[in-house]
Amino acid sequence: MPQVALIYPQIPPNTGNIARTCAATGTALHLVGPLGFEISDRTLKRAGLDYWPYVEVHYHETLAAFQAWHAQRGGRWIGFATKGAHNYIHFRFAADDWLLFGSETKGLPPEVLAACQATVYIPMAQSQVRSLNLSVSAALGLFEARRQLGYLG
User: Fold this and answer.
1) 153 located within any domain
2) Domain region containing 141
3) What are the residues whose beta carbons fall under 8 Å from the beta carbon of 108, sequence distance 6 or more?
4) pLDDT digits (tens, 9 = 90+) for 55-100
5) Number of domains within the chain
6) 34 preceded by a cis bond (ω within 30 of 0)
7) 113 phi and psi, to 5 degrees?
8) Which end of the chain is less enclosed by CB atoms within 10 A, N or C?
9) 99 Cβ partners below 8 Å, 6+ apart?
10) What percent of the chain has pLDDT over 90?
11) Paired strand residues for 77
């Protein structure tokens, strides 16, 4: 089953919404620091509502710690980026993929993009709109991967 990783997230409600999506789908969520908020932030908890007990959350203090965690488990890093190489709808996801999303203000850092086995984008009809909200992007990416892999029942 794909996993979701947020690299340097900045806005607590987005992370809380993504945690709620992960809880609903039984998807592990990885938070890679430094974070732009405290894990105990009340807006983070509020956005996740009472679903926190149902999400498997892993906190990695640094990118290096996350890379070491990933190295022990394997799977591809699929980076979601506004200038990704593949339309996410046409990309073929695999069960052991890691769906990586960057901060709301900067996206994935260059060193993470360079380490990805593939990058994907969500197409925008209006060229003036750079991207969707992080929680929306994560939900779209996760549900498309799950659809392709037959996890939607």
Assistant:
1) no
2) 3-148
3) 7, 79, 80, 81, 100, 101, 102, 116
4) 999 999 999 999 999 999 999 999 999 999 999 999 999 999 999 9
5) 1
6) yes
7) -55, -40
8) C
9) 2, 3, 4, 5, 78, 80, 138, 141, 142, 145
10) 80
11) 98
- The CATH code of the domain that includes 103 is 3.40.1280.10
pLDDT over threshold 90, residue 41: no
Interhelix angle 12-25/134-148, nearest 10 degrees:
20
Residues in the chain: 153
In a domain, 46, yes or no: yes
Q: Is residue 14 part of a domain?
A: yes
In a domain, residue 15? The reply is yes
> Is the pLDDT assigned to residue 49 strictly greater than 70?
no
Q: Residue for token digits 């990586």?
A: 100
DSSP 8-class letter at 111: H
Q: Are 48 and 69 in contact (CB under 8 A)?
A: no
The pLDDT of residue 109 is 97
